């Protein structure tokens, strides 16, 4: 059985087909959402599940990610992920109002978001890069859950950052090595506090600029 859920002022329907979870926006009217769910379930019961494309609305995906992340990350890391998700969602609503589905988040959208975070707009490049890496962590969950096949953030180069003269500590070397191997921030935060990772990133440019830089 599916269900109708409300996020903000919008109703969404969730249902299972072919053993997978689907989500679809239904609009602001509860009765219309319930009717949509009934129609979808009738379609599935009639053997038409193959006509349903697996996708998920971005707000629902972000909520599901944060619910999952709550059991895997400490409070401070979870709060950073929550703020990043909220900021990216607000950006999409304003600059890409037609973006509804997770699958519509393309490298071009991430490039647009990067421009929104650009130092020319007064954003510290290290903070902007950390935001993009946190977004990479969030969208990686889309691959894990089968909603997307590729993470659009890995095709976008991060901002270059001047290296601050400082001796690289053992912890700094570890973070640099892990980031260089493409390990996500969420996994690194199991070993170090996110505040420590951010501090290490501040003192040296430890972040590879793109997926190609990670493996070359």
Give a written overview of the molecule.
With 216 residues, this protein is mainly alpha-helical. It folds into 2 domains: 3-51, no CATH class; 58-215, no CATH class. It is built from 9 helices and 3 strands, in the order βββααααααααα. Strands 1-2-3 form a 3-stranded antiparallel sheet, covered by helices on one side. Helix 3 packs across helix 5. The protein is elongated and about 60 Å long. The N and C termini lie far apart (48 Å).
Rg is 19 Å
Strand count, sense and barrel status of the largest sheet are: 3 strands, antiparallel
Question: Looking across the biggest beta sheet, what order are the strands in?
Answer: 1-2-3
Shape: elongated
Helix share, percent: 40-55%
What's the helix-strand series?
EEEHHHHHHHHH
Mean pLDDT: 78
- Strand tally is 3
